[in-house]
Amino acid sequence: MTQPENGSPTPAVPGARRPGERPSGAGDRPSGESPAAPPRPWPQRLLSKADEAVVRGIVRVSDRALGPYQSAVVRIGFSFTWLAFLLFEWPHRRELYGPDGPWSWELGERLVASNHAFTVLLWSDSAVWFEAVYALAVLSAAALLVGWRTRTMSVLFMVGVLSLQNRSVFMGDGGDNVIHLMAMYLVLTRCGRVWSLDARRARRSAAGGTGGAGGTDMAGIALWSVLGAVLLVATAGGRLSWFGDDGPVLYVGWATFLWGLWLVYGLWWYVTRPAEGRAGRENARRLMDVLGNIVHNATLLIIMAEVCLIYATAGWYKIQGSRWQDGTAVYYPLHLDYFSPWPALAEVLGSSGLMVMLLTYGTVIVQVAFPFTLFNRRVKNVLLAVMMLEHASIAVILGLPFFSLAMIAADAVFLPTVFLVWLGAGVSRTAGRLRRGRPREPEEAARPSGADSPARTLVG
């Protein structure tokens, strides 16, 4: 029974509550909190996680250029290797790729007509033209090494590599194939964001508050104009095709590819140059930056896959050879005069059966296992050091320095970022001691713009 305000009793009603009394079950959850949603079925949860992973992946590959230090060391390694080779063979350049070689200009023209390879050396049989192309290859390799006008020099570096190697296809020791591929890949990477003159110029421009040096970059404008004029003359003369199977991509000719790069570089300068009303070009700049990051990251992945493919195929082909199976394969090149610059050292290694067997089996094991070690960084780093040491030994013992340098430069794409940052800091300190009269730049300036911490590669 309940007692009303007038004092007469009233019967209790089931489920009724007194004034101010909280309803039954109200204390089970905090006030204002909605009832807990029922758990979703596992297929929906799986799809939600997959969507989140896809979004994170898209943001990661488009937000920044991954592996700036790895791409920089690959750029430095291959440009140094090619430059050293060109300078070393300077006295013999005419016999290797020029008019005095056994592979005559007529034979080269017939070969290129059949395989559709790209080379500007066959545009003319003049000795002056050959010397100009060879000098261009040397200068572009040196400029790419120091990172001066990296985007443009990467294209000229590719032109120099393809022109010389496709002119005489029988001149090489295996490393030329790696340089051939990497020269084309470097064009699509943003390999000058660190350890380059371009990066230093960008830092100084940012420190000076100019926001970039595009507006007063007369050297860049002049270089862009001159190369555009050269492209125009070559295209008008029928030296470059717009479409067909003789370009870098199927059905895309070299004229389409080179003109496309020329226009993109001009557009990039336009959207990044400082000027009044720059906000109107900000969206275009961001779009080009995102596209550049995507292309860079995809190319970096292709480079890593290419290195893995080289070692995997080399290792599995060795397994099929009987000399590699019985552990004696290393013995034979050690006793060839052509591959013995240090006969005494080769004799010491080749005279020990145990050493020959260990080197033979060790080479096969490392090459076959390396692609599978990318899932474990520690094991990968150990095998990476072993492979670099192996290539250094090949350079000394077998007399193949440029092949070894090319492979070490390709392996460098897997070097850990922490190691590269430490190496770069050490080089900066050493350079600072050598130029005591000049102030050193802060170490944090070596980081790429927009990155709070060094970006890793997919496995580094």
Give the rounded overall mean pLDDT.
Answer: 84
Briefly note the structural class of the backbone: mainly alpha
Radius of gyration: 31 Å
The termini sit apart by: 79 Å
- Total number of helical segments? 18
Strand content: under 5%
Low-confidence stretches: 1-17, 211-215, 442-446, 448-460
Q: Helix-strand pattern, N to C?
A: HHHHHHHHHHHHHHHHHH
Helix content, binned percent: 55-70%
Largest beta-sheet details? none
The shape, in one word, is globular
Strand tally = 0
Describe the structure using short key phrases.
globular, single chain, disordered C terminus, disordered N terminus, 18 helices, mainly alpha
Written description of the protein model:
There is one protein chain. The chain is mostly helical. 60% of the residues lie in helices and 0% in strands. It has 18 helices and no strands. The longest helix has 38 residues, at 282-319. The radius of gyration is 31 Å and the shape is globular. Mean pLDDT is 84; it is low at 1-17, 211-215, 442-446 and 448-460.
Layout of helices and strands:
Layout: H1 42-63, H2 68-88, H3 93-96, H4 105-115, H5 127-146, H6 150-167, H7 175-186, H8 197-207, H9 218-236, H10 254-272, H11 282-319, H12 322-325, H13 331-334, H14 343-350, H15 353-369, H16 377-397, H17 401-411, H18 417-434
Helix pairs in contact: 2-5, 2-7, 2-17, 5-6, 6-7, 7-17, 9-10, 11-15, 16-17
In short:
This protein is an all-alpha fold and 460 residues long.
